Amino acid sequence: MFKIITFRANTNRRQDFGENPRDNKWLKNQLINLKNRYFPDLEIANNLIIKFGRPAKTRLGSIKHGRRRENPNTIITINGHFQDREIPDFVIDATILHELTHYSQGWFSPHPRQHHYPHQGRAVKNELTDRGLSDILMLSRKWLKRNWREYIKQNHGY
Ligand SMILES: [Zn+2]
Structure pTM? Predict the structure, then answer.
């Protein structure tokens, strides 16, 4: 039985996220809720792990396989800056949905690949738009365009 599981980090790079920072458990719940609401048809066919990674300037999220060769886990990593409550939930949700789309389209998952390249022909955007998610994508893109550069200037470099 495969499932979405919580990654337990042994190190935390940045601690000053104030009270009630987002953690990996919160992240897992976001993923489960988004999957159930917008990808009800998607089978979680291996162990899927989501975690905050190191704070990064440009990369918002990524998806890769774990180390095991046989039936490898899938690991989604979300920018560590997103633990900060200053970043709106919808930015993180849009990032999770982007990586979950890669999973559904066979990138670092047991599902068959639908394209030669992960972003071929706007594959991610089209999938999310088909699932009624164009609003959150636009909201997230706009917020990042307006705020991200300044946020990094103020907060990167820990
Ligand atoms: Zn992508």
Answer: 0.91
